[in-house]
Amino acid sequence: MPNARLTAWLPYFVVGLLALFPMVESTFYTQLLTKVLIMAIFAMSLDLLVGYTGLVSFGHAAYFGLAGYALALMAPKYETVSLWWSLPAAIGVCALFALVTGTLVLRTRGIYFIMVTLAFAQMLFFIFHDTKIGGGSDGIYIYAKPVMKLGDAVLLDLEKLQNFYWLVLALTALVYLLLHRVLGSTFGRALLGIKVNEHRMRALGFPVFRYQLASFTLSGALAGVAGYLAAAQYGFVNPEILSWHQSGAVLMMVILGGMGSLYGAVIGAFAFVLLQEVLSNQAWFGIAAKHWQLAMGIFIMLVALYLPQGLAGLLQQFGRKPVTEIADE
Amino acid sequence: MSETPILQTRALTRRFGGLVAVSDVSLDLYVGEIHVVIGPNGAGKTTLTNLLSGDLPPTSGEVMFEGRDIAGCSSDHISRLGIGRSYQKTNIFLPFTVFENCRLAAQSRTPNATRVFHRAGGYPEINRRAEEAMAAAGLDKRAERIAATLSHGEQRQLEIAMCLATQPRVLLLDEPLAGMGPHESQRMVELIKGLTADHAIMLIEHDMDAVFALAHRLTVMVNGEVLESGTPEAVRSSPAVQLAYLGGEEILHD
């Protein structure tokens, strides 16, 4: 393939460009792009389930929101919290919750799986909404960003917008690389096999449930990375972060970008967040901006109708190889 | 042929509500022997296969594998014990290449192939077994083809190749010749013959030429029950079989 070398370098090129972004752009756009990248991590974590394991979860906000609340509850009110232990702790909480919920929800399939994952997310929503654990429906403020210290020296001051942006960018790249490696391994191939033909995988001797549970747990843990960063960025969490709207939005990003391709999930997150920003811009769309969901809905319907492989499918027409082969590189 | 059966069933029964799909079936499989099961549609042959492979749990009765009762074990567990099956309706990974279909099958036998950062293609042992299975099934020239683009006969060969890549000792082959042309059928018969020495094979088949070319032992099922079981000659001459199932004299006396 003539452009194989080019496509191999493309991700590094894109990350390089994104790293330069805060140098040339304003606060507003840096913040917006931070949000996009956080959602890209979230979408990639869900794509592991939907696109690579064949499990359509409609409750992925549970893990996103749980990590946000974990940060809010770990952070002392008038002091800072160290990133070094609070991020792994938030990820651990999400992984554990995913492991427990996974053992239950993975006994169902198809539409029932969608409903049961939604039910778990709603339970979590109402736990935080109706009890005082996380400040009820008002939520909790996180007054300071987590700190990255080595000894007494501050490694990276996250209160600075661009530093926080770079941290998010680095973690996005890291999650992408991690998933790329995992999906190219025998474990990843087994997940794809389960997505394509679960019954045959079982007949070949694969303990399907264990593979699915591992995927579900990893997916929940990575959603936790995104949720932690989102809470740190806004400095605030309330039950909305756990709501089914959030689960729906991330699912739409994955579908928009194209299920079963990691960069598709990233593209989907870009498209969704930027489109939301553009369509709700009153200066451009006046009164219609209030009803941006309507235009978004039409756009998503058009993509679903004419680009069944999502926006990533457009790229594949320019010579990208099918998923199973990409995983081999 | 070995002395003791590797797989035995005793009074194996499966009910679906009021229907008894498999009733009180006892049969033995030996390494080095092809045990052919024939019978009209609805006789319970595929259900019997499903009971042996763990796709369905039996209602009652025993399935003994090397002396252990495995009735009711999950299909992945039974596969890992060394009982492989092929399906009557082609059951493969259509979007994957032929090689990847076989590689996945071979991977299932290597529990330490779960290092999550190691490339899937980087296990020489797994690749070798996948290639051997493809070669044995006559698919080595099709390795890079997407399974969905294969002909029907080739898909049936792939079905067998995947089964072989799991290195089973017992093969349960459910109508491997279904829908094949005469040339392809002949190839498949030769393939199955070549597997006999190292495997215990249970073969379900409708093609009578193939049945009598391959069978060391023949069991006739009707309405879920074993009507007759024995050497092909004994079964041919059984009046009950002639009456109830085979009927057509030209099949039996040609």
How would you portray this structure in words?
The complex is a heterodimer of chains A (329) and B (254). By secondary structure, chain A is mainly alpha-helical. Chain A contains 14 helices and 4 strands. A two-stranded antiparallel sheet of chain A has the order 1-4. In chain A, strands 2-3 form a two-stranded antiparallel sheet. In chain A, β2 (148-150) and β3 (153-156) form a beta hairpin. In chain A, α2 packs across α9, α4 crosses α8 and α9 runs parallel beside α13 (310-316). The radius of gyration of chain A is 20 Å and the shape is globular. The model of chain A is unreliable at 320-329 (pLDDT under 50). Chain B has 2 domains: 1-82 and 168-254, P-loop containing nucleotide triphosphate hydrolases (Rossmann fold, 3-Layer(aba) Sandwich), CATH 3.40.50; 91-167, no CATH class. Chain B is 36% helix and 23% strand. Chain B has 10 helices and 11 strands. The radius of gyration of chain B is 18 Å and the shape is globular. The chains are: A mainly alpha (329), B alpha/beta (254). The A-B interface holds A 181-182, 184-190, 192-193, 196-197, 199-208, 322, 324, 327-328 and B 53, 55, 74-76, 79-80, 85, 87, 91-97, 100, 103-105, 107-110, 113-121, 123, 126, 162, 166.
**First-to-last CA distance of chain A:** 13 Å
CATH topology of chain A, anyone? Answer: ABC transporter involved in vitamin B12 uptake, BtuC
Read across the widest sheet of chain B, the strand sequence of neighbours is: 7-8-9-4-10-11
Number of domains of chain B: 2
At CATH level 2, the architecture of the largest domain in chain B is: 3-Layer(aba) Sandwich
What is the overall shape of chain B? globular
CATH topology (level 3) name of the largest domain in chain B: Rossmann fold
Strand content of chain B: 15-25%
